[in-house]
């Protein structure tokens, strides 16, 4: 790749290295949400962008797009075990949009946000001047649960058990079996985990870019190596259908847009098989260990007890 | 206009009418910033979007674009007489962007934000899949100044004097005389006004869409009529050059992108001629009065003591 070409990871690394800290910024760029100190308490904030072509196709309905713009952000709140309090939304609309469709879009945003206790409090809207894709940007604000510190990516320890909620893969399946428009953010599950585990819940994040990539991020943030057992990965029916039973584990690692929780639990803690009000399954998929040597790969995947290269699986974009 | 065509004002009216309230939302959509209750105090939030073609041309530098994305938001904080504490930024980048230009953009965002005490704490970045314009979205979070309640648009009273900071018009002048990339948000001026006037500072907003439009918004929010004296409008040299001396008042009303403060002061209060550490001029441009009859125009402009129609001046987009 030439020096002039764009690499998102390099841009993020530049941001993480160059952004100045401040006394009131407790968690800056690089986690699912930032945490700042406000009026003696913690306030969490994150923002996600959704662009036609990248996160949805032109064939998607306004209701689907508006819902997803909000639920992706709520999934970030779940990743921190926090409680959403408000959202702001910006919409850049194609010139061809009708009043009815624009209203359908903002209604979907507003209704979805209200359902999670995070009313739409402001934002911005404008029309593209030339041709341009529908672009949405949602900011979510959140507060910690009472007595629960925000759960970061970087708190895992060597020996931790690694879990996921639900099942992975097949989210983008074209036959409608995929769930990237219909997923329910794991907010209740996250709160139940934080309350059940207390200080034994060491690290957490939500899975948006695929377990191969996101698992690396959690391990890197904790300066550890994630060891994932391919045979233990829970796969959705859509994932099995898309990849076959034998290769479904690859879809679970690489398909992305799962919006399940990945979390690290202290070694030796006995875990239930489900969590939360809907008895959502939780599955141990591996563990975290000290890096065998510096600069070793942050994620080791074992299939038939052999290490397999999964570094090309997953999506290589992340939030700032 | 057909029913299916898009009208931004109708969409905003729909949002303002349909968004549900909540106990912790003190100011929802419709002001320069929203205000929510967090940890027993007030937190302010706003977000603005910047799109190539609409808010800047492709010829603008990354440094100009990044700076403007932040200063527009800081201007919203000034409008509330609040103190910025953090920003989040989302960038949707054209496929052709280089690493160097992307870094220049985020550096401009980060440095400008830090200068106002509002470090970049997070966000999102992605590439357009097809052709799409550079799109930025910045969210700013703010706290009230100690002892100062956020100044809203809707607090003006009949008889109030109407003032602006600085001079208006010519912001987009193509010869470089315009200031839409270089304006300094009136944050220090806003704080000085709030401290000088206390409860006599009734209402405030920043001017982004032109005084004709924004003055109407302040008057409407206060259920009053703004009466503006064209001869009293302070015009920039670039405005005079673009419109001639005789018609400069029209540029002051309609050019937009001024990012000056418009504020309402209790009748009878003697005002200084400048405010803040840089001795920024302030000018009385008219007053607010009770609506002569319901549904009367929210803004009356007098030129040579005659009412002139300025309803076509200004830009008809606004924040949610």
What does this structure look like?
Two copies of one chain form a homodimer. With 320 residues, chain A is of the alpha+beta class. Chain A folds into two domains: 45-144, 60s Ribosomal Protein L30, Chain: A, CATH 3.30.1330; 153-308, Alpha-Beta Complex (Phosphoribosyl-aminoimidazole Synthetase, Chain A, domain 2). Chain A is 26% helix and 29% strand. The first copy, chain A, has helices spanning 8-18, 62-79, 99-115, 187-197, 211-221, 237-243, 248-254; strands at 25-27, 34-38, 41-51, 82-93, 120-127, 135-144, 161-165, 201-206, 224-229, 261-265, 274-275, 280-290, 299-303, 306-308. In chain A, the strands form two sheets. In chain A, strands 7, 8, 9, 10, 11, 12, 13 and 14 form an eight-stranded mixed beta sheet that branches. In chain A, strands 1-2-3-6-4-5 form a six-stranded mixed beta sheet, covered by helices on one side. The longest helix of chain A is centred in the first third of the chain and has 18 residues, at 62-79. The radius of gyration of chain A is 19 Å and the shape is globular. Chains A and B meet through helix 1, strand 2, strand 3, strand 4 and helix 3 of A and helix 1, strand 2, strand 3, strand 4 and helix 3 of B.
């Amino acid at each position: 790749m030439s020096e002039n070409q764009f690499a998102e990871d390099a841009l993020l690394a530049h941001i993480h290295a160059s952004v100045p800290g401040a006394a009131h910024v407790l968690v800056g760029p690089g986690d699912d949400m930032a945490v700042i100190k406000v009026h003696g308490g913690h306030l969490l904030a994150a923002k996600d962008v959704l662009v036609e072509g990248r996160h949805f196709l032109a064939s998607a309905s306004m209701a689907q797009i508006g819902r997803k713009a909000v639920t992706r952000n709520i999934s970030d709140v779940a990743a921190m075990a926090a409680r959403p309090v408000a959202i702001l939304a910006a919409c850049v609309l194609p010139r061809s949009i009708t009043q009815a469709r624009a209203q359908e879009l903002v209604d979907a945003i507003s209704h979805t946000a209200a359902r999670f206790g995070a009313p739409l409090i402001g934002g911005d809207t404008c029309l593209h001047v030339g041709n341009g894709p529908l672009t949405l940007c949602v900011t979510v604000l959140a507060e910690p649960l009472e007595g629960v510190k925000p759960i970061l990516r970087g708190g895992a320890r060597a020996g931790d058990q690694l879990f996921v909620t639900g099942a992975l893969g097949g989210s983008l399946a074209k036959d409608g079996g995929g769930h990237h428009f219909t997923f329910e953010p794991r907010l209740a599950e996250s709160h139940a985990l934080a309350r059940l585990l207390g200080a034994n819940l060491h690290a957490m994040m939500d899975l948006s870019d695929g377990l191969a990539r996101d698992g690396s991020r959690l391990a890197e943030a904790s300066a550890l190596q994630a060891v994932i057992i391919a045979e233990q990965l829970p796969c959705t029916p859509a994932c099995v259908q898309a990849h076959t039973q034998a290769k479904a584990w690859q879809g679970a690692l690489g398909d992305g847009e799962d919006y399940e929780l990945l979390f690290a639990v202290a070694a030796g803690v006995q875990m239930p098989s489900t969590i939360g009000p809907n008895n959502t399954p939780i599955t141990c998929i591996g563990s975290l260990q000290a890096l065998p040597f510096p600069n070793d790969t942050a994620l080791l995947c074992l299939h038939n007890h052999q290490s397999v290269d999964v570094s090309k699986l997953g999506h290589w974009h992340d939030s700032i």
